[in-house]
Amino acid sequence: MAARWSSENVVVEFRDAQATAMSVDCLGSHAVLSGRRFLYMVNLEAPSEPPRKIGRQSKWDVGTVQWNPHRAESHVFAASSNQRVDLYSWRDGCGEVHTSLQGHTRVISDLDWSWFEPEFLVTSSVDTYIYIWDTRDTRKPTVALSAVAGASQVKWNRKNQYLLASSHDGDVRIWDKRKPNTAAEYVAAHLSKIHGLDWHPDNEFILATSSQDNSVRFWDYRQPRKYLNILSCQVPVWKARYTPFSNGLVTVMVPQLRRENSLLLWSTLDLNSPVHAFVGHDDVVLEFQWRPQKEGSKDYQLVTWSRDQTLRIWRVDPQLQKLCVSDVEELMDGMSLTVEMEKSLSSQEPDSQHSLGPAAENLQDPDSGGRQDSAGGSGLTQTLQQEFSLVNLQIRNVNVEMDVVNRSCVVSAHFGSHQVHLVVKFPAQYPNNAAPSFQFVSPTTIPSAMKTKIQKILTDTSLQKVKRNQNCLEPCVRQLVSCLESDMTQEDPFVISNPVTPALQPFPRVTNTYGSYQDANIPFPRTSGARFCGTGCLVYFTRPITMHRSVPPTEPTPRSLSALSAYHSGVLTPMKMRSESQSTLRLYSGSPTRSDKDTVSISSFYYKERKLPISASRRWSVQTLHDWPKSRRFKTKREGTDYGNRPIKLAGKVIIQDISCLLPVHKSLGESYILNMNDIQETCQKNAAAALTVGRRDVAKVWALASAATSQDLSPDSDPDTETPWARHPFGRQLLETLLDHYSHMSDVQTLAMLCSVFRAQAPPPDCYSLYGHHASRSAMLPPHHSRYPSYTSSSVTSGSCSSTSDSITTTTWNAGRDSEHANPWGESSPDDYRYGNQGYTDPREREREQHDMNKRLLDPANMLQFDDFKKCYGEILYRWGLREKRADVLKFATCPPEPHKGIEFGVYCCHCRSQARGTQCAVCKRLTFQCAICHVAVRGSSNFCLSCGHGGHTSHMMDWFRRQDECPAGCGCHCLLQSTF
Amino acid sequence: MVSVINTVDTSHEDMIHDAQMDYYGTRLATCSSDRTVKIFDVRNGGQILVADLRGHEGPVWQVAWAHPMFGNILASCSYDRKVIIWKEDNGSWDKMYEYTGHESSVNSVCWGPYEFGLILACGSSDGAISLLTFTGDQQWDVKKISNAHTIGCNAVSWAPAVVPGSLIDQPSGQKPNYVKRFVSGGCDNLVKLWKEEDGQWKEDQKLEAHSDWVRDVGWAPSIGLPTSTIASCSQDGRVFIWTCDDPAGNTWTPELLHKFNDVVWHVSWSITGNILAVSGGDNKVTLWKESMDGRWACISDVSKGQGAVSTITDTQQTEQ
């Protein structure tokens, strides 16, 4: 795999160190190893000397340790331990904690010293905050960045003193510390958790991320939607860091087996294969760092610490460094490396030379300074042979036979009952703008229409690629597969032929699935919720019991839908590692690599207990032994394989709860309350009894008070000089106002509206009487009690008759709303058309009387509108309860009439000339428009007619007639009583 | 006592995102990631599937019932950037209108008070809020507030139709002069109040208190008191109650109801506006009630999914 194998320069074993972290100081003289009981200071000049120790007292492992990178502060290093950062100073062979930074509330996941200001340190934590500390003032952080999601990594930009990057599951956020409120940029970088983050040493805009999703990606954060380049690996990548020399990258993989402890050096210009493997460690490489170059030395040294308890120092000589730089570039630019190229350096370089072409994706930004000149091409094309040898076609049901000599390959695929055999021929110039040809051969079984469709898709795909001198075999095969899959629905979803090394996903994510960058601003969907509905119901829905969150309950739910990509596999425990990162035993507790057949859904965020392929569950059960020894629940549940085929319930039940007892209004009271204007006393007593039956003793007492206040003995005298009206008494209006205030605080709109209605009925405004013509003038003696005036309610809205009560107008319009069965109750009109304040007073006595009228009332006339609102609101509730007549009863007492009725209106057409008529005589033919069918006299006033035949007449005549007859009196044969719904 | 009166098994194939009953509490509408909206007749504790509405091409986030005076009308909004208004005609449900004027997921829909006619507010992740008004004859008038919330709008809620601040000034007996207002919450961590003036929608107020995305807002129903109340909840776990006693509607005072440990997704007011239901990422629902002295207290903590319900009985009934 690698071009050269090397052995390390120095190997030192620290058997008892049990160190979890390591850091090399900026002078290159010391490395600190952090164990649980001691910090070991290794002199890198003489590493085999026994290390000096600094004791520590903590039950927590050190999460991260880092030396201050500034020479002036080179004696200082920071070590995080659970929620705290300790700052140590190391002088003259002794070290001690000189200060601690406390502020985080959860475990600290990463820390990083600023490259520009020696006092500044940034820390990230699971508690979702990123703190920037000034070590001169350690009481609190100087800047707090709230990320909402917990961060796993945080790194200062090396070129811009204000910028820093943090990783949150699969996302990267770029922050400007001057604008701490929100991240400057979001990069939805990976499908799974990001383990490592590293800024380019020379380019302000470029960073590399390594992730659980088996890839390292390179980003220009100004273009967050598309990575610049990708390094696809077969296994999750733990860390990927740029080398201090040009175009190099060192990666550490998450080992699938303990023996594979691959520490690899790559050229960022050719990501197809590593240039070097550092072989030697027997166990997981926990940390690797570059030792600063000594004056005059051309070598770099890589210091590594592994769980095998050895510290190794690897020399990277200029030859090795040069491997990271492609030949052509080297010729073009004036490289600083002086050592001449050796022939033996690379076995691959000669091959790649003739396929060099313009790169489609530049790793480095052309605008940036630094070494961008040496980074011309990163997406180098390969020869066909190379492509064949490197192509990743681990796709289920697909087999590709490649024949380099004939420049062709045969792709065979089986989907359901269909087979596809496709011959791909590559022209000689391929891939330099020359697309391969595709031809279906027998025994292909798919219909010809589909063949044509697929052929077109393949041609398009290949053309797209070769135009940019890129290889197209793999994209084409994948297109073919996705085409076939979308058409063949009968595949069995539970057979995954290759679960251990599933195919990589070489394409950017499809934009119409969840978790794409576009979803960064779409809120994470609600999966539970409660809503008050109707009048007394609480509707709530929840996640089913089988759906646990895949993150610990202490982790906040992500805010944006794009976070879903991190939970893509549905079996991942994405934050587990971060929250337990202080324990090295769990460092690599990787989850089974996912199948790319998984679809992303919101449910991916929630852990499904049952949906595990058998192979995966077996892997899990092994891992759980290592990783979650205490968690029996995980183990036992996951080992059950018989769940595999059962459908999973993703939707929980919707529960409707009756919460009406919590409300201040009661439906039963709404039903039993009465508003009898003729006997206020009785109304109050009955309502009091009703209130008692529902347990509202307070309201019952209020009704008793209302009864007392409306007692006939207290009826106000019409003469203002006789006595002060009861309303002016403390137990009058004042008491009522206190009561209303009380029930307002309780939001008891039922009591409020009923009280307002009753007291309004008790002292009706005087104008309504004149309106109804019962009194010649307002100056006439006002009745002490309205109950003498039954006509007040005679035109009750619920009368249900089809008769007009007014004599003064003709029967031309009828209000259909009068009928309670068919009416639209929204159109009720109030009989009370009283208005304030527009009377002109000529007589001071009149004015006094007017004042007296106001004073007599128990309800403050100034608040009438508010009282109307109570009634309107209560009316609305009654309507919801289906108590429309009760609603009409209440709304009668509103001062403000509802909107004019807009329902059915009856018009009269002249029965002779058919023209629309008003009045009794037709304006066109001068005859009577509406004659009574009995007496043949023109009808004024109360009338009835048949809706079917249109005949009718005076109400009294009609009633007489139909008492004895069924048919129309006009003799038309209409069965009016049956026809008319009225 | 609080009692479960119905448990509806929706048979949705994926997670449910909203459930809402109609005006009378007789029908239940649910929507899900399986791209469907379902309507159930839930009278008398039963469960009859009335309609299975398919038309969205992505997960459906929210549903909203219109006032029954306009007929049986339901609006739904989805990840697919569409708002669909469904109407029942002779027992069958059909699309009445499909609105595709948003460029990103539509997260919230809310019908205005019936006094304003059939008017729907829609909040989208493209940052805009659309107002759809039915003008008769299958015509809908669309007004769009662009960039109402930078990054995205997550929730909208209408103010009840009350005459602003003019309880005293209003000449009695006239048809009240209602002002259309609604509140919205978004990814800019802001709660914004909007008001229609001369047919144009204008930002009336900007309420700042949350430190992360505002996930839901709820304007409390009015029972005729001069105070306006709004609840807002956020990704930061905080729920604020905003009140305004000022007749002009300019001074809003926030009060922190509670800080939850996880995101709060939803706030909902009871019909009398004195109980607030709060629900969030922790799969729990809490009910909060305003006491006589104006303080908010948790009256129940309903742990969901277990079917277990615990509440505190209505102390009010006995305390007087």
Automatic annotation (TrEMBL), chain A:
Keywords of the record: Repeat, WD repeat
Transmembrane segments annotated in the record for this chain: none
Pfam families: WD40 (PF00400), zf-RING_16 (PF17120)
Biased composition (Low complexity): 791-813
Region Disordered, annotated ranges: 340-379, 788-850
Domain RWD: 386-487
Record InterPro entries: RWD_dom, UBQ-conjugating_enzyme/RWD, WD40/YVTN_repeat-like_dom_sf, WD40_PAC1, WD40_repeat_CS, WD40_repeat_dom_sf, WD40_rpt, WDR59-like
Start and stop residues of the WD repeats: 101-143, 154-185, 187-229, 278-317
GO-annotated cellular components: Seh1-associated complex; vacuolar membrane
Bias (Polar residues) ranges: 344-355
GO molecular function: signaling adaptor activity
GO biological process, alphabetically ordered: cellular response to amino acid starvation; positive regulation of TORC1 signaling
Family named by the database record: Belongs to the WD repeat WDR59 family.
Protein name per its UniProtKB record: WD repeat domain 59
Organism in which the protein naturally occurs: Sparus aurata
Gene for this chain: WDR59
TrEMBL record, chain B:
WD repeat positions: 9-50, 53-87, 207-242
SMART domains hit by this protein: WD40
Gene3D superfamilies in the cross-refs: YVTN repeat-like/Quinoprotein amine dehydrogenase (2.130.10.10)
GO cellular component, one term: lysosomal membrane
SUPFAM superfamilies: WD40 repeat-like
PROSITE patterns hit by this protein: WD_REPEATS_2, WD_REPEATS_REGION
Family that this chain belongs to: Belongs to the WD repeat SEC13 family.
Name of the featured protein: Protein SEC13 homolog
